[in-house]
Amino acid sequence: MSERLRVHVDPEKCQGHARCKALAPELFELDEYGNAHEAGDGAVPPGLEDKAWLAKANCPEIAIDVIEE
Amino acid sequence: MTDVNQPTAHPPVTDWVHDFDHTDPQWTEDPFPIWDELRAASPVVHTERFLGCYLPTTYEAVREIANDTQHFSSRRIIVRDVRPEVARNAAPPITSDPPEHKPAKQLLLPPFTPDAMKKLEPRVRAICNELIDEFIADGKVDAAARYSKYIPVRAIAHMLGIPESDSDLFINWIHMILELGIKDESKLLQAVQEMTAYFSGHIETRKNKPSDDLISYLMNARDKQGNPLEDSHVLGSLRLLLIAGIDTTWSAIGSSLWHLAKTPADRERLIAEPGLIPTAVEELLRAYSPVTMAREVVKETTVSGCPVKPGNMVLLSFPAANRDPKMFPDADKVVIDRRENRHAAFGLGIHRCVGSNLARMEMQVALEEWLKRIPDFRLDPAGTVTWSQGTVRGPRQLPFLLGKAM
């Protein structure tokens, strides 16, 4: 059985590079300034785990956490 | 006293570690081995040139400085031979420190979100094709002078609501400010004066007749207390958008085409897999980052264990950080499908480039449209590629032969 993942953006660290939105549009939303936050409660639907890790690995501000639940 | 009217000649560099100079012809031509040498020597090196300047050489040292606005001020962001008085509202928010920085930045962010860029994309695609139409039949082209240069300038003119046909005027100001201005203060002042007069005219026109563009947007903006921005703030931000929005992306598109001209395997792969272009754009941004920023040390501190003293400038080399092999495996190679890429081409921390979404869209569209219409091209052996000097690095002459090699 595969693990359940949850993504979280630290709003203090996010500077709006928007890499997460480009790489995993299903998992992140941008506000009016272009800063990111997780979509909904951050739960990663099955099949999108790779995108969650990819978003984390490409955030220049190290603002994204992927939590294994 | 320094005579501001006389450009200063710099002696050639013989000891890079203790006497680096980012305006030296060797740095302009091929900075990569220099950065490797400096990185091997220390995470932070120093030169007595430019009245004293540090250069962080590792990704980590660059990140530390970018995130430390207490010790490193943005009031001066170009390393030059002189340190004239700091002007108020020079070019907010890029020249602002906390606490003034955040409100000035938030003002500029909404027009530059990815969604806003999607609306602009069709115009940029059309600009690319209009430019290609002008030279595709010739069989050869200077791709820097006739393609990469005009895409960002026309796009930002379109956003600002000023005539795209004034492009050459803007390009000349930028050359005077960012290149000639490093060593010749009078050129910089002249360009700033001309830009101020130009934009003041456009602001006046809009006072009677508001329009749906970025100039009117800034004129209508209100601060937290509900007051309009001072004219000098509007002018400073307009100057910033024009300066920052043009030769940066011009350079990035030019370097990308330069790489593809001499790397047929990458070119063929992107033609076969256009979906890979956004990933390739990130890697080209990493490998050929155009923009080196600067800070002024305002309080003594240490960076990666190295002491740093006030009175010095810092050349904040995002391009050198992006070549740090500790951060990027095969840092010296262009890997167009690199999956993990935390490159700092648009800066790190609160001064992240406000136009990064615009630049990315322009680069993607510029490469897509070029590759669609000109799948085969190569460097013209009869021509010479030249690179800009100073703060923004990219090809300024890029002679190509178009079509299949005979």
Secondary-structure map with pairings?
The complex is a heterodimer of chains A (69) and B (406).
Chain A: E1 5-9, H1 19-23, E2 28-30, E3 36-38, H2 49-57, E4 64-68
Chain B: H1 16-19, H2 25-29, H3 32-41, E1 44-47, E2 53-56, H4 59-66, E3 72-73, H5 101-108, H6 114-135, E4 140-142, H7 143-148, H8 150-160, H9 167-183, H10 185-208, H11 214-220, H12 231-261, H13 264-272, H14 277-287, E5 293-297, E6 301-303, E7 306-308, E8 313-316, H15 318-321, H16 356-373, E9 377-379, E10 386-387, E11 395-397, E12 399-402
Parallel strand pairs in B: 2-8
Antiparallel strand pairs in B: 1-2, 3-5, 4-12, 5-8, 6-7, 9-12, 10-11
C-alpha geometry of chain B: globular
Q: What radius of gyration of chain B results from the CA coordinates?
A: 21 Å
**Can you count the helices of chain A?**
2
Which class best fits the helix and strand makeup of chain B? alpha+beta
Question: Any idea what the CATH superfamily of chain B is called?
Answer: Cytochrome P450
Number of strands of chain B: 12
Number of strand segments of chain A: 4
Roughly what is the average pLDDT of chain A, rounded to an integer?
Answer: 96
Strand order of the main beta sheet of chain B, please?
Answer: 1-2-8-5-3
User: How many domains of chain B?
Assistant: 1
Distance from N terminus to C terminus of chain A (CA atoms, Å) equals: 12 Å
Order of helices and strands of chain A: EHEEHE
